[in-house]
Design brief:
heterodimer, A: Glutaredoxin, Rossmann fold, 5-stranded mixed sheet, 19 strands, B: 168 residues, 4-stranded mixed sheet, 35% helix
Chain lengths: 625, 168
C-alpha cells in the first residue's frame, strides 16, 4: 500500500478525489458483518470462507471487494452478508453457504431465497436492505457509516466523506465558528444526562487553566445498551474526527477515549484508527499542515459501572480508584488533573462531524423542540427484531417497538407487552399506557424514567416487575462505589426489602419504608448513580403497584418468576414422555422413565425451581403456578 | 501453599510504560492478563516502580472488577447478567453453571480449569442470554447448550449448534 501523508488540506482533498475516481471505489461490495454479535454467531468463518474462495485477483476479475464491516445492528439475525450496490441482504449465513452465494448471487444474478429475511408481519421474504422495515424506519446519523465500511480501512471512511468535516473546519472555520455551530445545533449529550454540549464546551473554553482536555466516554455501563460499542467498533474514525474538531474548538491538545474493559474489539479498532490517522497527519502535530496539534490516547476501564460517571471516569484515567466528586466543582473548570475538561459520550462525538458537514440548521431541524437530532437505541428483550435502532427524537415508544422492533416476540397472553425499561439502572419501567409517549430527553424524565444512554428493554407478561426492581437494586448495590453512605447502605436496605417481598415475606409497611429510603438516597448521594438509584423501584411501584401487593398480600407472583412463590407441575395430558426435562434437571427432581405413556412427577422437595424443565419442554407440559 | 512467582514478566510489562502513577491501571491489566491474577510480589514491584504506595495499589486492585488477587482458571466463563440477559433467562444459565461446576461467581474450580464470573452486560444484548468464554461470546445459550462450554478441555468434542458457533 502506498504511504500517504497529507501536508495540507488541498493535499487531502486531491487524494480523496483520486480515491473516489479510482476503480476500487466503483467496485461492487460484499459486506460481511463482523460485529461482536455476528462474530458470536460464527461470522469469522463466513469472512474466512469468502477470503479463501475469492482471492485478490478473483475479486478484481469480478469487479468487487469483500469487506469485514462493523455491526449492522440486526444482531439477532446474524451472521449477515450484504451485497452492494443491489442491497441483497442475507441473514443467518454459514460458511457452507458462501460458495452458493458467490456462484448464484455474485457471479450470477440470482437471489437465494432461503437466506432472505422474512418480514414477521407479512411473512414474505425481502430481498433488499432498504426495504426491510427494521432499517426503512430508521434515520441514521450517528450510525450512518456502521455496517457500510471496514472499520480497519481508513480509505473506506474517506470514501464516505470521512474527515471532510475536519478539512472544512481547519480550512474555513475559526474555533469560535465551530463552537457557535454546535451551540446553534443545540446538540445535547447522548450519554445519559442530556446536557447541552455547546454550553459545556463554552464553559470549558472560558475556564482558566494551563491546558484543556477532551475525553470520549466509551464506558457504556448501562446493562442492555450497546450503541456505543457498535459505534467504536464500526466507525472508529468518526469518533476520532469528532474529537479532533471539538479539540480545535476548545484549543485542546490532548484527548482520551475511555473504553470499557468488556469491549476488546472496540479497543483494537480504535487503536488501529488512531495509528492510521496519525500516519496520514489527521491526528498528531500540525494536523493537515495547519498549526493545530492534537493527539488521543486510549484508556482501558477496569470494570466498574461508576466509572461511566464523568468525575469517576477522570479519576480512573489518572490511574486511581474511580470515585465520583461533588458536583459544585464542574469538570469544565477542574476535570482531568484538575484542568478544564470536556467529556462527551462517543455517540455525541460521532455526531459532531455530521453537524459541521451539514450545518447546524439541518441538525436543529430534526427532532423535537427540546431534543434535536436523532438517537440510537438498543432495542432488546422480548421483541421480534432486537438490535440497534436510530430514530428521530420524538418518535413514540410504540413506533419504535412495533415499527423497527417488529412487535412482541411471543404470542399469547404471556407474550403481551407489559413494560419497556429505558435509561438503565437510573431509569424506569414505562407501562402500556405510555406507549404513545414521544421519546426525548424531557418526556422520559417527566414520565419517571430517563433517556440514559439509550437502552430499551421490552418486557412481556412473563417478566415480574418486582423481580426487575430487585435485579436493578442488586446491580446498584454491587456497583455503588461506597463513598456516600445513603447510596451504599440505603440501596442495600432497599434490596433487602424487595428481596423479602420476592421471597413471599413482605409486610404491610414495606412499601412506605421504600418510599422513605428513596427520599434519603436521592438527597444524600453525590453522583447520579445514587441520585437516580431508587428510580427502577419507584417507577415499578408507581405503575405496577398491584404486582407488589400480590406478592405481599396474596403471596403470589403473577408472572410466575419469584421462586419462593411458585411450584412446577407436569401436565400429564400434554406430556408425550420424551424425557427432555429429566435430562435438563440438575437437581434430579423429576421422577419417571422416558417412554411414551409414562407419567412424570416433580418432587417438590428436591425441585429448586430453576425452570430448566420449562425451557426444554417442547409441548408446554410443565405448568407454573 | 506458597506459589513461586516469576517476576520477569512483571519487569517486561513495566518496561513498556513510563514510570508514572497514571499508568498503574494499565500495568495491572497487563499483569492480570499475563498471570491470570495479581501476585503480591508483582504488585510490590509495581508500587516501587511507579512510585505509588502499596496500599493504593491494593485499593485499585480491589475496586475494579477486572482484577483478581487469587489465580483464575484457564477458562474464564463470564455470564452476562445484564437486563436483556436477565429477562431472557440468564439466572437459569448461571444456576446451571453453578450447580455443574460446584463454584459460585468469583470462584475458580480447584483444578484451576474454570472460573465463573457474573458480569453486567457484555453489550451483545440482541443475542441474550450470553456467556463469554475467554473473550469469545456465545449467544442464545440454552440450559442444555451451556454444558458444552464446560466440557473439560482434555476431552474436546467438536462443538455444534447455534450457541457455540463462534468456535467454527
Amino acid at each position: 500500500m502506498e504511504t500517504v501523508r497529507y501536508d495540507s488540506v488541498d493535499d487531502f482533498g486531491s487524494h480523496v478525489k483520486r480515491l473516489k475516481a479510482s476503480g476500487l471505489a466503483r467496485r461492487r461490495r460484499v459486506l460481511v458483518c463482523c460485529g461482536t454479535g455476528c462474530l458470536a454467531g460464527g461470522a469469522r468463518g463466513v469472512a474466512e470462507a469468502f477470503a479463501a474462495q475469492l482471492d485478490r485477483s478473483r475479486q478484481a476479475e469480478l469487479n468487487l471487494v469483500v469487506k469485514r464491516t462493523g455491526c449492522h445492528g440486526f444482531c439477532e439475525k446474524g451472521p449477515l452478508v450484504v451485497l452492494m450496490p443491489r442491497g441483497t441482504f442475507y441473514k443467518g449465513v454459514k460458511p457452507e453457504h458462501v460458495s452458493q452465494i458467490i456462484e448464484r448471487s455474485i457471479v450470477g444474478d440470482d437471489v437465494i431465497e432461503e437466506l432472505l429475511y422474512v418480514e414477521p408481519g407479512s411473512g414474505k421474504p425481502v430481498a433488499g436492505y432498504g426495504e426491510i422495515e427494521f432499517y426503512a424506519r430508521q434515520t441514521r446519523v450517528a450510525m450512518r457509516n456502521i455496517g457500510h465500511i471496514d472499520p480497519a480501512d481508513i480509505d473506506d471512511y474517506l470514501l464516505r466523506d470521512g474527515y471532510a468535516a475536519l478539512a472544512k473546519t481547519l480550512s474555513t472555520m475559526t474555533p469560535e465558528d465551530v463552537l457557535s455551530t454546535i451551540e446553534k445545533a443545540r446538540l445535547r449529550g447522548r450519554g445519559g444526562g442530556g446536557f447541552d454540549a455547546g454550553r459545556k464546551w463554552r464553559s470549558c473554553k472560558r475556564a482558566a487553566g494551563e491546558k484543556r482536555y477532551v475525553i470520549a466516554n466509551g464506558d457504556e455501563g448501562d446493562p442492555g445498551a450497546f450503541m456505543d460499542r457498535s459505534i467504536m467498533e464500526g466507525d472508529p474514525h468518526g469518533v476520532l474526527e469528532g474529537m479532533v474538531i471539538g479539540a480545535y474548538a476548545l484549543e485542546s491538545h490532548e484527548g482520551y477515549i475511555y473504553v470499557r474493559q468488556e469491549y476488546p474489539l472496540a479497543v483494537e479498532h480504535l487503536q488501529r484508527a488512531i495509528d492510521d490517522a496519525r500516519a496520514r497527519n489527521l491526528l498528531g502535530d500540525n494536523i493537515l499542515g495547519s498549526n493545530f496539534s492534537f493527539d488521543i490516547e486510549i484508556s482501558r476501564g477496569g470494570g466498574a459501572f461508576v466509572c461511566g460517571e464523568s468525575s469517576a471516569l477522570m479519576r480512573s484515567v489518572e490511574g486511581k480508584v474511580g470515585e465520583p466528586r461533588a458536583k459544585y466543582v464542574h469538570a469544565t473548570d477542574k476535570g482531568l488533573w484538575d484542568q478544564p475538561t470536556v467529556l462527551n459520550n462517543v455517540e455525541t462525538w460521532v455526531t459532531v462531524p455530521r453537524i459541521i458537514e451539514q450545518g447546524a440548521e439541518w441538525f436543529a431541524g430534526l427532532g423535537t423542540e427540546g431534543s434535536k437530532g436523532t438517537k440510537a437505541f438498543s432495542l432488546v428483550g422480548k421483541v421480534k427484531n432486537t438490535g440497534l435502532v436510530e430514530v428521530e427524537m420524538g418518535t413514540t415508544l410504540r413506533e419504535i417497538i412495533f415499527g423497527p422492533g417488529g412487535g412482541m416476540l411471543e404470542e399469547g397472553e404471556r407474550g403481551r407487552f407489559k413494560a419497556v425499561q429505558t435509561g438503565g439502572p437510573s431509569g424506569g419501567c414505562l407501562p402500556a399506557a405510555q406507549l404513545d409517549l414521544p421519546v426525548d430527553f424531557d418526556t422520559l424524565t417527566r414520565a419517571g424514567s430517563m433517556m440514559g444512554s439509550g437502552g430499551m428493554i421490552v418486557m412481556d407478561h412473563s417478566t415480574c416487575m418486582v423481580d426487575v426492581a430487585r435485579y436493578f437494586l442488586s446491580f446498584l448495590v454491587d456497583e455503588s462505589c461506597g463513598k456516600c453512605v445513603p447510596c451504599r447502605e440505603g440501596l442495600f436496605q432497599m434490596y433487602q426489602i424487595v428481596s423479602r417481598i420476592c421471597e413471599g415475606e413482605g409486610t404491610a409497611g414495606d412499601l412506605d419504608q421504600i418510599d422513605d429510603l428513596s427520599r434519603a438516597i436521592l438527597v444524600g448521594s453525590l453522583c447520579a448513580l445514587g441520585k437516580s438509584g431508587p428510580n427502577p423501584v419507584l417507577s415499578t411501584l408507581q405503575h405496577f403497584r398491584d404486582e407488589y401487593r400480590a406478592h405481599i398480600n396474596e403471596r403470589r407472583c403473577p408472572a410466575g418468576v419469584c421462586k419462593a412463590l411458585i411450584t412446577y407441575r407436569v401436565v400429564n395430558e400434554a406430556c408425550d414422555g420424551c424425557g427432555a426435562c429429566l435430562k435438563a434437571c440438575a437437581s434430579s427432581a423429576i421422577l419417571g422413565t422416558p417412554k411414551k405413556g409414562d407419567t412424570f412427577n416433580i418432587d417438590e422437595a428436591k425441585c429448586d425451581r430453576c425452570g430448566a424443565c420449562v425451557t426444554v419442554c417442547k409441548r408446554g407440559a410443565i405448568a407454573v403456578g | 501453599m506458597k506459589i513461586e512467582v516469576d517476576i520477569k514478566p512483571t519487569e517486561q510489562i513495566l518496561a513498556r510504560y513510563p514510570a508514572q502513577p497514571r499508568f498503574l491501571i494499565s500495568v495491572m491489566q497487563d499483569i492480570q492478563l499475563g498471570y491470570r491474577y495479581l501476585p503480591r510480589e508483582a504488585l510490590e514491584r509495581v508500587a516501587g516502580a511507579l512510585g505509588v504506595p502499596l496500599a493504593r495499589v491494593y485499593g485499585v486492585a480491589t475496586f475494579y472488577k477486572a482484577f483478581s488477587l487469587t489465580p483464575r482458571g484457564e477458562r474464564e466463563l463470564r455470564i452476562c447478567t445484564g437486563t436483556a440477559c436477565h429477562i431472557r433467562g440468564a439466572p437459569l444459565i448461571l444456576h446451571e453453571l453453578q450447580t455443574r461446576l460446584g463454584i459460585k461467581p468469583g470462584q475458580t474450580t480447584e483444578d484451576l480449569v474454570f472460573s465463573l464470573e457474573a458480569v453486567n452486560c457484555v453489550g451483545a444484548c440482541a443475542l441474550a442470554p450470553v456467556v463469554v468464554v475467554n473473550d469469545v461470546a456465545h449467544g442464545n445459550v440454552s440450559v442444555t447448550g451451556v454444558r458444552r462450554l464446560i466440557r473439560t478441555p482434555k476431552t474436546p468434542k467438536t462443538p455444534k449448534g447455534k450457541d457455540v458457533g463462534a468456535d467454527n
